[in-house]
Amino acid sequence: MSDFKSNEYATLIGGSAFEPKEENPMIGWRGASRYYDPEYVEGFRLECLAFKKVREEMGLTNVKIMIPFCRTVEEGKKVLAEMGKYGLVRGKNSLEVYVMCEIPSNVILATEFSEIFDGFSIGSNDLTQLTLGVDRDSTKVSHVYDERNPAVKELIRQVIQKAHKAGRKVGICGQAPSDFVDFAKFLVEERIDSISLNPDTVIKTMIEISKMESRKS
After folding, report:
1. What's this model's pTM, rounded to 2 decimal places?
2. Cα 63 to the center of its chain, rounded Å
3. How far apart are CA 62 and CA 142, in angstroms?
4. Of 151, 72, 64, which is closest to residue 106 (Cα–Cα)?
5. Which three-class secondary structure state does DSSP give residue 170?
6. Most distant CA pair in the chain: distance in Å?
7. Which of 9, 44, 124, 164 is deepest in the core (most CB within 10 A)?
8. What distance in Å separates the CA atoms of residue 157 and residue 151, rounded to the nearest whole number?
9. 101, 107 contact by CB (below 8 A)
């Protein structure tokens, strides 16, 4: 689902007439918090109808739904209820609904999130931002931003463990595995289920991971 921030929507044609002015849109009105808000429900309706068309009319039932920036379990339940109004019900017609893991609360309450979602996709960009308290849009503090920081890696380690214990799959869709081979190796060592990579880094990363696993055997 969409995860534009208010400043990004405002730059679209006509967007400034509808978007609030936020001091810090990175942690403002974005992701899940929009979907059940009266000021955005019509937009979310279109998103749901698009998914419904893809799955039911086009027959692509392998398409999963991913909910970004879901701050609390209660918020997740509200989003699922809103989706249900348009026939998008978790488990119906094999529909799986994943949640992005990009907020420390997603890690801390991973077991509880596992009760209402089918899996996790780690968003390492936002998770790093919110773990280290670094605005990833700010050049003044960009030197502090590092997905390989021990605190970030510890949260990733924890959510993988908690997700697997709850019988849920967990992947990663952040930039870090593409930028740093050692980070991709760390994810494999922690037994993550899937890793997204930029096309130009797939072969290089797979070779390095293969070497690592060969040494183990």
Report:
1. 0.92
2. 15
3. 38
4. 72
5. strand
6. 60
7. 124
8. 10
9. yes
Indicate the SS3 state at residue 169. strand
Structural Rg of the chain based on CA atoms: 18
**Cα–Cα distance measured from residue 188 to residue 21, given in angstroms and rounded to the nearest whole number:** 41
Q: What angle do CA 194, 165, 111 make, to 5 degrees?
A: 95
3 state DSSP class of 65 = strand
Residue with tokens 């050049």: 139
Cα atoms in the Cβ-side hemisphere of radius 13 Å centred on 66: 17
Core vs surface per residue 188-213: b (16+ CB within 10 A) or e: eebebbebebeeeeeeebeeebeeee
* Number of CB atoms found within 10 A of residue 128's CB: 26
Per-run averaged pLDDT (10 residues), the chain, 217 residues: 95 94 95 97 96 96 97 98 97 96 98 98 95 91 94 98 98 88 93 92 89 76
Residue among 12, 68, 17, 70 nearest 39 (CA):
17
From the list 217, 197, 215, the residue with the least C-alpha distance to 206 is: 197
Beta-strand pair 194-195/65-67: unpaired
